[in-house]
Specification:
Elements (H helix, E strand, L loop, with lengths): L1 H14 L6 H7 L1 H17 L3 H15 L2 E2 L4 E2 L4 E2 L6 E2 L4 E2 L4 E2 L4 E3 L11 E2 L4 E2 L4 E3 L3 E2 L4 E2 L4 E2 L8 E3 L4 E2 L8 H10 L2 H5 L6 H30 L42
Parallel strand pairs: 1-4, 2-5, 3-6, 4-7, 5-8, 6-9, 7-10, 8-11, 9-12, 10-13, 12-14
Antiparallel strand pairs: 14-15
């Protein structure tokens, strides 16, 4: 028993940089108190003292603000950070080295008996306010974003965000032209970083690249029209006026000799 307690305390120091001393962890971390209380409740539940287990669980909930059903199965080094509002259902199963933040619900979507709560694999992190609902598995090493609502199985190592939650794919690296445009507009860190897989940021990056390609094609069309009829002026794009808060960098202009020439020959109208 004491070895498990020491293991729990070490896991707090490993995952919470705010932890300073062992006494502070023992006295001021409700997540630990809730886990230790659940172990007692779970022992009572599995040995037939179900009413007493529920009573002890209610007392733990009143003291910590964390509700864990005595029937839930919890692995080693489980860590609940902050903890207020966490709810873990009766048939939930949690693996080793799992981290939950405040407001997380591991709940069910059915009133039927049997397995109705999720199974959380090893090394899973569930962000604040996330809801994992249903009798499916969240794979080992998965990450659930804050306030996500997960209603179907999560593959191992995946990151899911949104309502309903969806797997986030890593965006391809942006082109140099897109980087230059985004830097000029002042949101390079938000729109183009690969360290933060944001679907909206990826969409903005794709739009910027598409706009750049359209500009290049428009210049080509104007050059072809100018060859057919000299009265048709070549393209002259107006200068983009940027507000003061934008970056000082300039979008690199496309020189005429840098543009690809059309391969087909154009005959002049007689």
């Amino acid at each position: 028993m004491f070895s498990r307690i020491r293991e729990d305390i070490r896991s707090v120091f490993d995952r919470d940089p705010a932890a300073r001393t062992t006494w502070e962890v023992l006295s001021c971390y409700p997540g630990l108190h809730a886990i230790w209380g659940q172990r007692i409740s779970h022992w009572l539940w599995t040995h037939g003292f179900k009413w007493l287990a529920r009573l002890h669980s209610n007392l733990s909930r009143w003291l910590t603000g964390i509700e864990i059903h005595p029937g839930a199965v919890i692995g080693r080094r489980f860590f609940i950070d902050h903890g207020m509002g966490v709810v873990i259902g009766e048939t939930a199963e949690i693996g080793d080295d799992v981290t939950l933040y405040q407001g997380v619900t591991l709940g069910g979507v059915s009133w039927n008996k049997g397995k109705r709560h999720p199974t959380i694999g090893n090394n899973v992190v569930v962000g604040a306010g996330a809801k994992v609902l249903g009798p499916f598995k969240v794979g080992d090493g998965a990450r659930v974003g804050s306030n996500a609502v997960v209603v179907k199985e999560v593959p191992p190592g995946a990151t899911v965000v949104g309502i309903p939650a969806r797997v986030v794919q890593e965006a391809p690296p942006p082109s140099e032209k897109v980087v230059a445009i985004a830097r000029t507009l002042g949101f390079d860190a938000y729109g183009l970083t690969r360290d933060m897989p944001d679907p909206v940021a990826n969409a903005i990056g794709s739009m910027l690249e598409h706009i750049q390609l359209l500009d290049e094609r428009l210049v080509q069309v104007c050059q072809v029209l100018h060859q057919m009829d000299s009265r048709m002026p070549e393209l002259e794009l107006s200068k983009l006026e940027l507000p003061d808060f934008c970056g000082e960098g300039k979008v690199p202009a496309l020189a005429a000799d840098e543009l690809p020439r059309p391969e087909t020959k154009v005959r002049r109208a007689s």
